Amino acid sequence: MTETPNVDPAEIAKFSELAHRWWDPDSEFAPLHHINPLRLNWIDALASLAGKRVVDIGCGGGILADSMARRGADVLGADLSSKALRVAQLHALEAGTTNVEYREVSAEALAAQQPGSFDVVTCMEMLEHVPDQASVVRACATLVKPGGWVFFSTINRNPKSFLFAIVGAEYVLNLLPRGTHEYLKFIKPSELAGWCRLAGLQLEQTRGMEYNPLTRRYWMSADTSVNYLAAARRS
């Protein structure tokens, strides 16, 4: 029996359409460029990336994967958008980032092929775009070595997040293309924590990501009511 991939074709098409603009800091991906130093420093502070084997699930055009490689990690970027992966590979060539590679493979398929193979697993801004979110969490837990780190970032599900992440970001401030997010796919921190526990991951830290539209500044805080990040370790 052929396994059905855990993917929404409409989501892949949406990001593939914009793939050529992934590395343009003034494009629809500008928010990723702005938050990347924040999330990179947070991951590095907890997991000490240098010399580690890392997989970035849902890597897209490679913004985080490339920056982790530049911190000294040996990075594999995994995604199901062939267009985004071609952009990521081209950027790695142009930038001379030699310790990063990219594969068109699902989290679940990679977990079956390489269980317990990575010191660090990152899955950022990806969970809210797949049909079976718990399945991706399980795959990430399978991929990481015992004692290794798994990092997630996603969006909380509540009236405030609907107002800020969809109405504000997509329709008022035009930070993101309209239709980028679906409210019902947003994930409460308690839900993510539950999936982590069931997958054998111990949640170590959660942080919020905030944005001031007047100063156009992002920062990390204790407020997880909209965008948030979670760090977990495999027992």
Q: Going by CATH, what is the homologous superfamily?
A: Vaccinia Virus protein VP39
What Rg is obtained from the alpha carbons, in whole angstroms?
Answer: 16 Å
Number of E-type strands: 8
Q: Unreliable runs, pLDDT <50, ≥5 residues?
A: none
Query: How much helicity do the residues have?
Result: 25-40%
Give the overall shape, derived from the CA principal axes: globular
The averaged pLDDT comes out at 91
Features:
8 strands, 8 helices, alpha/beta
Describe the protein.
The protein has 235 residues and is an alpha/beta fold. It has a single domain, classed as 3-Layer(aba) Sandwich (Rossmann fold), CATH 3.40.50.150. Helix content is 39%, strand content 26%. The protein contains 8 helices and 8 strands; from the N terminus they run ααβαβαβαβαβααβββ. β1 (53-57), α3 and β2 form a beta-alpha-beta unit. α2 (30-47) packs across α3 (63-70), α5 runs parallel beside α6 and α6 (133-143) packs across α8 (189-198). The two termini are 32 Å apart. The mean pLDDT is 91.
